[in-house]
Amino acid sequence: MDAISRATGRRTLLKSAAVLGGALATGALAPLGRALAGAPAILKPLPPAWFVDYGTNAEMRWDSVDPRDYLTSPARLFVRDHTSTPTIDASTYALRVYGDGLRRPRTADGALTLSLRDLRRLPRTTLVATHECTGNGRSLFGTQQGIPAAGTQWTLGAVGTVAWEGVRLRDVLRAVGLDPAAVSVQATGLDPHYVSGGVDHGPVRRPFPIAKALDDALLAWGMNGEPLLPDHGYPLRLVLPGWVGIGSIKWLGSLEVSTTELTSPWNTTWYRIGDEPLSVNPVRSAWELPWNAQLPRDRRIALTGRSWSGAAPVRTVEVSADGGSTWQRARTRRTWQRGWTPWSWTWDRPVAGEHVLMARATDAAGRTQPLTTPFNPNGYFFDAVVRHPVTVA
Ligand SMILES: Nc1nc2c(c(=O)[nH]1)N[C@H]1C(S)=C(S)[C@@H](COP(=O)(O)O)O[C@H]1N2
Ligand SMILES: [Mo]
After folding, report:
1. What are the sequence ranges of the domains in the chain?
2. What is the pTM of this model?
3. CATH topology of domain 3-277
4. Over the stretch 44-88, which tens digit does the pLDDT of each residue have?
5. Ligand 1 pocket test: which of 52, 78, 82, 193 has the largest number of ligand atoms within 8 Å of its C-beta?
6. Does ligand 1 lie within 6 Å of residue 86's CB atom?
């Protein structure tokens, strides 16, 4: 099924689709056509049992997570689109690589092009890693700390753990030839330009240090053994493990390698706190429970959740059911590579009434979750211990 028939199949079919006919079918005018037709930005189905739908963004519901599944299936992974998911033909797709940081410098016009076939000749790798939006938990600045932050009001579901399959960026850069003086790489997406407040900010793009490129960055074409879904970057995306989601540019169109620091509004204006462009994700935890869950009184209740950190595996998780007066160790399960740590805890015969559950993780780098986190206007990095309300009856 093509993108348009899938999109229109999901929501009410639009009379205008027939009028837009040919242009829509060829995909030539896809972004414009979709906007005219009022079609959704996100192409995959967003069943309300699994997602909260914000239009161009969709959040995974933690109460829909099956504790037995370590990985997040692509169908259930959150989506964050600045504009809308483009439809890209993999057979004509090519990644452009240029910049003065290549051993043989190239201008944007003279970029080297790499097809998916070219990339697949390099050694393949699979990496399990937790993938998370910088603004995950943003709504809690308002609901828990009393000062709302601007932006998508995610609860805690802008996160998932995926087995990415592809090639290491360092192998690509070595094959292409790197100037030892290279310091910065800028990744640019093929989605429509991001226009906000009447300003065209150009395509979504963000630079990152060459050290990250030569460490663990991947160019991924697969997730959990399947090709990327269109919403997650088909046919190729960048993955910067452990880093803010915005670093992992989807629908990767080009990489510029430079001997000077590159910039874009995505590191100079957005995705920074104060002077610092954000990079490594903080420590966070979530219960696999609905908000205001109803639980039975006078029983032993097995509860589960997960914790994760961008810097290192989560080592310990403590839980409190009395508002933080006393804490007990949760039982943690194994962390897989760079992925999250599932945990469980038995609540022993709670009494009837309103309760608050709290979970606090500490990672192997010694980072932990504070009880409150400093406010920032865009609501990034909400890493405070979440006060999760439940009713026992
Ligand atoms: N080209 C492009 N890449 C992008 C984005 C985008 O809008 N366009 N959104 C970024 C943000 S903010 C996040 S959190 C992740 C979300 O990835 P996902 O939708 O696959 O979960 O993609 C990042 N890469
Ligand atoms: Mo994000």
Report:
1. 3-277, 283-392
2. 0.91
3. Sulfite Oxidase; Chain A, domain 2 (3.90.420)
4. 999 999 999 999 999 999 999 999 999 999 999 999 999 999 999
5. 82
6. no
